[in-house]
Write a structure and sequence with these properties.
Distance between the termini: 62 Å
Keywords: Aminotransferase, Pyridoxal phosphate, Transferase
CATH class of the largest domain: Alpha Beta
Structural class: alpha/beta
EC number: 2.6.1.-
Strand order of the largest sheet: 2-8-7-6-5-3-4
CATH architecture of the largest domain: 3-Layer(aba) Sandwich
Order of helices and strands: HHEHHEHEHEHEHEEEHHHEEHEEEH
Number of helices: 13
Strand content: 5-15%
Cofactor: pyridoxal 5'-phosphate
CATH superfamily of the largest domain: Type I PLP-dependent aspartate aminotransferase-like (Major domain)
Shape: globular
Number of strands: 13
Family: Belongs to the class-I pyridoxal-phosphate-dependent aminotransferase family.
Protein name: Aminotransferase
Helix content: 40-55%
């Protein structure tokens, strides 16, 4: 009798059984075929990659730059990335030894967590948060420890961090993502300084995903690496700042001793990122320092409109300080289960949002709304949501 695939599944990495497919992508696919639906679901900039960046990729292809790049990335791109981070955020890395070019920030997250975690380790994760970190921690055989920040305006306080650390002596790392997906909340100078004071004397890594750093409204973005340079693995990239999600270029920085180890996992999983995409990213970071500013101004206009309009409909939100998401509490009188609410809204009002439950503890009862969509689409969505809310009130 031959072995069938169902039998072999039982012999796969046992941690995979604890991982569920992304319900964000699953829900987005579920509602995709509803005629005329306005989708405010995925974190995908609705802008095109700047023309000068595209031309750099074309020139790279025409120059037959189609061979393997160095595993950690071309020196030109690592240099451009280091200079970009230094100029924008005053964090300093040696491009020769402290910068790795990854397959998007996602590739950096996987490389970092796979490199630092052993089975039995614990990773502190403030929630609500993008669920990718949770899945990768579990794949490494480690345990995610959730810190629900919903009672504190979605900001991790030093007191909550200190209390959680005391209760979890196996903590190996803390994850930070700011400006945050899904809340749009970010950390400012005093917040970062206070968190750093808690972590400074602890043998704990800080994985800081700052991919939305160029989309920060008001005060300039500041990195946790300014306060914990020896402990921080910093993630950034061009996906959001330059509307380059499909190019899959991320930036991972850390002290040389740590980067040397990270490079091993990166080398044996990715080999290297696409050569002509690296040429495009080099152009973006070298000659397009402020390409993201035009996009940011439009995002801010959309944020202001959506925040005010949804508040008038009873959706309470923390006002986003960055990224392009609104995390809104479902008004009383509507379905309070966020998946049920989003499914009903999609079918009855033809507006697609992401259930807050997708983002971990503290997310239930909320929805994430992406305003990486045209103002016209946002106005259509608000009109439809308003009609839906009014119809539910009449039923009551």
């Amino acid at each position: 009798m031959s072995i069938n695939s169902e039998t072999l599944v039982n012999h796969m990495n046992r941690e995979i059984a604890a991982i569920q497919p992304s319900d964000i992508l699953a829900f987005n696919a579920e509602i995709a075929n509803i005629p005329g639906i306005v989708r405010l679901t995925l974190g995908e900039p609705d802008f095109n990659t700047p023309e000068h960046v595209k031309q750099a990729a074309i020139k790279s292809i025409e120059a037959d730059e189609s061979h393997y790049a160095p595993s950690n990335g071309t020196l030109a791109l690592r240099t451009a990335a280091a200079e970009f981070l230094a100029q924008k955020y005053d964090v300093h890395y040696d491009p020769a030894s402290e910068v790795i070019i990854t397959a998007g920030a996602t590739g950096g997250i996987y490389t970092a967590l796979s490199s630092i975690l052993n089975p039995g380790d614990e990773v502190l994760i403030p929630t609500p948060i993008f669920p990718l970190y949770i899945a990768i921690v579990k794949l490494a055989g480690a345990t995610p420890v959730f810190m629900d920040t919903s009672a504190n305006g979605f900001v991790l306080s030093p007191e909550q961090l200190q209390t959680t650390l005391a209760a979890h002596p196996k903590t190996k790392a803390v994850v930070l993502n700011f400006p945050s997906n899904p809340t749009g909340v970010t950390y400012r100078h005093d917040d970062l300084k206070a968190l750093a004071e808690v972590l400074a004397d602890q043998p704990i890594f800080v994985l800081s995903d700052e991919i939305y750093s160029e989309l920060t409204y008001g005060e300039r973005h500041e990195s946790i690496a300014n306060y914990l340079p020896e402990q921080t693995i910093l993630l950034n990239g061009v996906s959001k700042s330059h509307a380059m999600t499909g190019w899959r270029i991320g930036i991972m920085c850390a002290p040389k001793a740590i980067t040397t180890q990270l490079g091993k996992i990166h080398q044996f999983t990715v080999t290297s990122t696409t050569t002509n995409a690296q040429a495009a990213a080099t152009e973006a970071l070298k000659n397009g320092l402020d390409d993201g500013q035009t996009m940011k101004r439009e995002y801010q206009e959309r944020r202001d409109y959506l925040y005010d309009a949804l508040n008038q409909l009873g959706f309470q939100s923390a006002k986003p300080e960055g990224a392009f998401y609104l995390f809104s509490k479902i008004p009383a009188g509507l379905p309070q289960n966020s998946m049920a609410f989003c499914r009903e809204l999609a079918h009855e009002a033809r507006v697609a949002l992401i259930p807050g439950s997708s983002f971990g503890p503290g997310g239930e009862g909320y929805v994430r709304i992406s305003y990486a969509a045209s103002l016209a689409d946002l106005k259509t969505a608000v009109k439809r949501i308003g009609a839906y809310v009014a119809s539910k009130k009449q039923e009551d």
